[in-house]
Design a protein that fits this description.
The complex is a heterotrimer of chains A (299), B (341) and C (334). Chain A contains 12 helices and no strands. Chain A is mainly alpha-helical and 299 residues long. In chain B, the strands form 2 sheets. In chain B, strands 6-7-8-3-9-10-12-11 form an 8-stranded mixed beta sheet, with helices on both faces. Classes of the chains: A mainly alpha (299), B alpha/beta (341), C mainly alpha (334).
């Protein structure tokens, strides 16, 4: 990450940002954000109730093995069949579970580690801060996907491994955010006021600083989850996803059928659209949150 | 024939939640070379008035009524292309915060020559020479070198001088100064006011000085209008205003200024209540809720400006201040500070 | 100004060092140890012994690191396990391909994104504004590879307008002094080849550039909105300047500053996007090279390739920082 970019990010933090009633009101009125919430709620429901929604199992063969010309969408199979005779709709539905799970866990992992690092850096300052931040800089110098690729090479392929790998790539974002937030707040007037009243240490951090840092954090968490889902799909697309055959991972479905584009477009379009919709939902929410906390147009 | 004649100007701002009535019927005349002060609290609509006159209101603002006659042309009715000939050329404006009012990525010289090349038909070299001369006039040392500098390389007071140089570059007939000293240190304030006064006299410009600070108008303006809730409540030659204010609000303003010669235990007298929220229609006198002289009439009928005491003193009040309550502040002849008292 | 540039350069050194250490550790941490990693499973005992000598695996770790760094700095990134070619040689072929693609994508993103963002800001909350917001949100939600596949399907397969893979029609021959095909065809004075090259470039560039476009449009819009409400714009208007002049000289000049930093940010994204796009279009660049390295477990290439990537990104960021300082006088004359 470049200095100028970091400065640009820090500039964003100078403006007041807080979860207030105003913010909530703005969010509710933001049509795009509401659409995002609806989409995500639906998605989560689909993921949770997958066995009830999907007519078949994700690896259940319900039709003929037809490598060259898998059946397209029909009344019985809404999204058609794939080359192994499996119902695509069911696979996409079960894929929601996988993608959401992996996305959330990766982001959560990155969030927790990143927060701790950022808090340590921001609170202690000095060489602790320098070391941690330099480490984050180095991590950011390697593009996320490549970093994840390298990590997978080290850790091997698998569900847990991919979550760790992608999770690690998200750490620097959170660490930077929190440390920047702490830095900006440490010098802000209300913190100085609190300190002059005798508020110290942990209480200062938890009661005063953290809640104000919360808002941009939530925004980033949503956006990072979206990126995580894309990155996981990307890794699967490259053949680095979990090795179990037949896993209904959206990215893997795209990879498997890239060569069949002309004959079996439905095998590419539906999983791809699924990815787009999930990520779009998260982005709408994250964006809506960002706008409602810190509206771009100050009247 | 007044140079500028504003009649019944009304401006509104539309937000998602409400409509703010920023200016509610403002009228005044300005003669060539006259210095007029407009005084009022933040949010009373004084800045908006001038922005509306020049046609540079922010997007959410709209002029809903009135006319602005400049040299017999209603500025509110002409197309923007024509208005651009007036802006910066015949009527110039300087703003409150010189740090944010100057473009950070252009040199100071460029920002001055911009206007010169547009309105005065100068080429690059002529404009540059003129820009240096202007910086000299506002007493910026080493003008020739400073022309190439950027705004952030100047101090606050210097930046404001640059703004002034920019504004007078095309020899405007009217200069509007919107809170020109508010963002500056007190000692610098005095200097800037001096520069302004001097230039106004040299160029024989009319000056509209907008401020919330009574001390500023005391030393600078021949005439002062007091604004409250989007309209003028009093208008008088400045010495008369200070000596015999007739509107309770003016009285309140004068009395709330801490005085160096006041007795030590004398309490400050703020005006009670809070400024009006300008989103609803005002019934009766806008100041009534905070006025110690308010009567039933004040609350129901809106007072209009009418003559009182003399031809040049106007007040909009049903219960003007009486003789015995007047503070009789004498403006000492404008010295270095130009402070009342 | 020079001062600032120097400082920035110095700051990147610890980052580069850190990177080299990480990659150094990376290869040694791989299952099977570096001998297997760098030689592949087909390495004979002799070769393994040789590698051990070369890398000094018997010697203490800091000596190994020293050897490694000496190699890297002298331009020796080792030899590819699959092709047995020196990595630096392959880089010379692969890098220009990706570079050309990246530049095309970036041009696409900037030439469309900036005006789009500007117009959206000018018509704030108008139809264009809302449409562009939605479109850019959709844009960033699209995985690059999905977009690439869709484009390929629609334009190359279904409509047959554009070629599906590669940089040049295989029947065509062209001298490659620079390996930048566009440049090469211009140098060779071959307009047909140029046209063919451009046709091959279009789809991958659009696929790769769409996400940066969406981001640039949003950032430009935000920057223009921000700047338009600034006091100095009001001053410019009060001077009676032509609105187009105000737009150009006052608004855009300032709005471009945050946009420039974003361009630097997306150097990283472009390069990763390249990995995914190149696989869809069989574009012989760095991206597909690394992909093959992963598939064939060519860790020498992975190590060298990632190092190159990362250094490239650091370098681009450095350039962006310096040009930012050049554009913003407040930083230039601190």
């Amino acid at each position: 990450m470049s200095l100028a970019e970091a400065e640009a990010q820090e500039l964003h933090l100078e403006r007041p940002s807080s979860l207030s009633r105003d913010a909530l009101d703005r969010f509710i009125h933001n049509k795009a954000a509401v659409v995002g919430v609806v989409v995500m709620v639906l998605l989560v429901l689909i993921a949770i109730f997958a066995p009830l929604i999907a007519p078949f199992g994700p690896q259940e063969q319900v039709g003929p093995l037809d490598s060259s010309n898998p059946a397209g969408p029909s009344a019985e199979h809404w999204m058609g069949l794939d080359e192994q005779g499996r119902d695509v709709f069911s696979r996409v539905v079960y894929g929601a579970r996988l993608s959401l799970l992996v996305g959330l866990v990766s982001a959560a992992f990155g969030l927790s580690v990143g927060l701790v690092l950022g808090a340590l850096a921001g609170y202690f300052g000095g060489w602790v801060e320098t070391i941690i931040m330099r480490l984050m800089d180095i991590m950011l110098a390697i593009p996320a996907l490549l970093l994840a690729i390298g990590l997978i090479a080290l850790l091997g392929r698998g569900l847990v491994q991919i979550m760790i790998a992608v999770g690690i790539t998200t750490i620097p974002v959170f660490a930077r955010l929190l440390r920047g937030s702490i830095l900006a707040q440490r010098e802000s007037d209300y913190v100085l006021a609190a300190r002059s009243l005798g508020v110290r240490g942990r209480r200062l951090l938890t009661v005063h600083i953290l809640p104000n840092a919360l808002a941009p954090l939530i925004v980033q968490a949503t956006l990072v989850t979206a990126t995580a889902i894309i990155d996981v799909a990307g890794l699967s697309f490259l053949g680095l996803g979990p090795a179990e055959p037949g896993l209904p991972e959206w990215g893997k479905m795209l990879a498997d059928n890239a060569t069949r584009l002309d004959r079996a477009t439905h095998l590419v379009i539906f999983p791809g659209a699924a990815i787009v919709i999930s990520v779009l939902g998260l982005n709408l929410i994250g964006d809506g949150l960002r706008e409602s906390i810190d509206p771009k147009m100050r009247s | 024939m007044p140079l500028l004649s504003v009649r019944d100007l009304a401006v509104q701002f539309k937000t998602r939640k409400s409509t703010v009535r920023a200016v509610n019927g403002v009228s005044f005349d300005l003669d060539a070379g006259e210095t007029l002060g407009i005084v009022g609290e933040s949010g009373c609509g004084k800045s908006v008035t001038s922005l509306a006159m020049l046609g540079i209101l922010p997007k959410a603002g709209r002029v809903t009524h009135g006319e602005v006659l400049f040299e017999d042309v209603d500025l509110l009715k002409v197309p923007d292309s024509q208005l651009r000939q007036v802006r910066g050329n015949d009527i110039a404006m300087i703003f409150q915060d010189p740090m944010t009012s100057l473009n950070p990525v252009l040199t100071v010289g460029r920002q001055i020559t911009e206007a010169l090349r547009k309105h005065m038909d100068m080429n690059k070299d002529e404009a540059n020479k003129e820009a240096i001369a202007l910086l000299d006039r506002v007493e910026i040392p080493a003008a020739k070198d400073r022309i190439e500098d950027y705004p952030h390389q100047f101090s606050g007071g210097m930046r404001q001088r640059v703004m002034i140089a920019m504004a007078i570059s095309c020899h405007p007939k009217i200069l509007i100064a919107d809170e020109p000293t508010t963002a500056l240190d007190v000692t610098i304030q005095a200097q800037i006011l001096e520069v302004l006064k001097q230039l106004v006299a040299e160029e024989n410009m009319a000056l509209i000085l907008i401020t919330h600070d009574l001390g500023v108008v005391a030393g600078t303006c021949e005439r002062t209008n007091v604004m409250y809730a989007g309209r003028f409540v009093e208008s008088a030659p400045t010495p008369k205003l200070f000596a015999k204010p007739r509107h309770p609000y003016t009285l309140g303003l004068l009395k709330s200024v801490p005085r160096l010669d006041a007795a030590r235990k004398e309490k400050l007298q703020p005006i009670g209540g809070t400024p009006l929220s300008m989103t609803s229609e005002i019934e009766g006198c806008a100041f009534a809720p905070r006025c110690i002289y308010a009567t039933e009439e004040s609350r129901t009928k809106t007072p209009e400006l009418r003559r009182i005491d003399s031809d040049d003193h106007l007040v909009a009040c049903w219960n003007p201040v009486q003789e015995e309550d007047m503070p009789r502040i004498e403006i000492v002849a404008a010295r270095d500070e130009g402070v009342a008292g | 100004m020079l001062n600032y540039a120097l400082r920035r350069v110095l700051l990147t050194i610890p980052i580069l060092l850190g990177l080299s250490i990480i990659l150094f550790v990376f290869v040694r941490a791989l299952p099977g140890g570096p001998e297997d990693a760098l030689l592949g499973e087909r390495g004979t005992d002799e070769q393994e012994a040789q590698i051990r000598e070369e890398l000094g695996l018997n010697k203490p770790i800091y000596v190994q690191y020293g050897l490694y760094m000496k190699n890297v700095l002298s331009g020796n990134l080792g030899v590819s396990t699959s092709t047995r070619q020196p990595i630096t040689e392959e880089l010379k072929l692969r890098f220009p391909a990706t570079f050309e693609l990246a530049i095309a994508a970036m041009l696409f993103a900037i030439l469309i994104g900036v005006p789009l963002g500007f117009m959206a800001a000018k018509r704030y909350q108008g139809v264009l504004d809302n449409a562009s917001l939605i479109l850019s949100l959709i844009g960033i939600s699209f995985p690059v590879f999905f977009l690439a596949l869709l484009l390929k399907y629609v334009f190359a397969i279904k409509l047959g307008l554009l070629p599906t893979i590669g940089r040049l029609d295989i029947t065509r021959s062209l001298e490659h002094p620079t390996n930048l095909y566009v440049l090469d065809s211009i140098i060779a004075g071959d307009p047909a080849a140029l046209w063919d090259t451009l046709k091959h470039l279009v789809l991958p560039a659009i696929a790769l550039g769409t996400i940066p476009l969406a981001i640039i449009a949003r950032v430009t819009r935000a920057a223009v909105l921000d700047v338009t409400s600034a006091d100095y714009v009001r001053t410019a208007q009060a001077k009676g300047l032509d609105p187009r002049v105000v737009d150009r000289r006052h608004i855009m000049k300032n709005a471009m500053l945050p946009v420039v930093t974003i361009v630097g940010l997306w150097a990283g994204l472009l390069l990763t996007g390249a990995v995914l796009t190149e696989s869809v279009f069989a574009w012989p660049g760095l991206g597909s090279w690394i992909l093959e390295a992963i598939r064939f477990r060519d860790y020498a290439v992975l190590q060298g390739g990632i190092l190159f990537f990362a250094v490239l990104i650091v370098f681009v960021n450095l350039l962006v920082d310096i040009s930012y300082a050049f554009l913003d006088p407040r930083i230039r004359y601190k």
